[in-house]
UniProtKB/TrEMBL annotation:
Residues 2-160 form the Heme NO-binding domain. PANTHER family: GUANYLATE CYCLASE SOLUBLE SUBUNIT BETA-2 (PTHR45655), SOLUBLE GUANYLATE CYCLASE GCY-32-RELATED (PTHR45655:SF13). The gene is hnoX. Signal peptide: none annotated. It comes from Algibacter mikhailovii. This is Guanylate cyclase.
Amino acid sequence: MKGIVFTEFLDLVEDKFGLEMLDNIINASDLESQGVYTSVGTYKFSEMLQLLQHLSANTGISIDDLLLVYAEHFFGVLEDSYPGLLKTYKDPIEMLSSIENHIHVEVRKIYPDAELPTFEVLEKTDNRLIMIYKSSRAMHHFGLGLMNKTFEHFNSTASIVLEKIKEDGTEVKFIINKN
């Protein structure tokens, strides 16, 4: 998992929960990196999972809800860092349907060894999108949060239904209906 995911997560924890909480979750975790990350480094997903588990245990907030909050933060990072990419799109459905064939292509230019989830578009109309998310990491709520922020970015709303295809969350169907 790319370091930017870790560095931004730690920034979020410090901003929302304080430096003491950040210290607590790092110290409670058995991190090969010792909690020291660079945005271009590559780290084990197990480290992110430990940080999330300890933050959840200390705050009483579910990991899924923490991932939603983190996705909102991360979308802001994307807006600030890659405004040209977002300006490529005029509509949230158009943007979300191009994750696999455009956005992930651009991400791989910056991070060639990034392990990204896949998104298979099953159905696309002007107001509806059905996609299958597949990943070895069950971070579908991070994806859901990014989708929510995508609609917000375009001053639009949608109902997004998440259906687990595999119980562990490594394969999920997103059914998106633009309002």
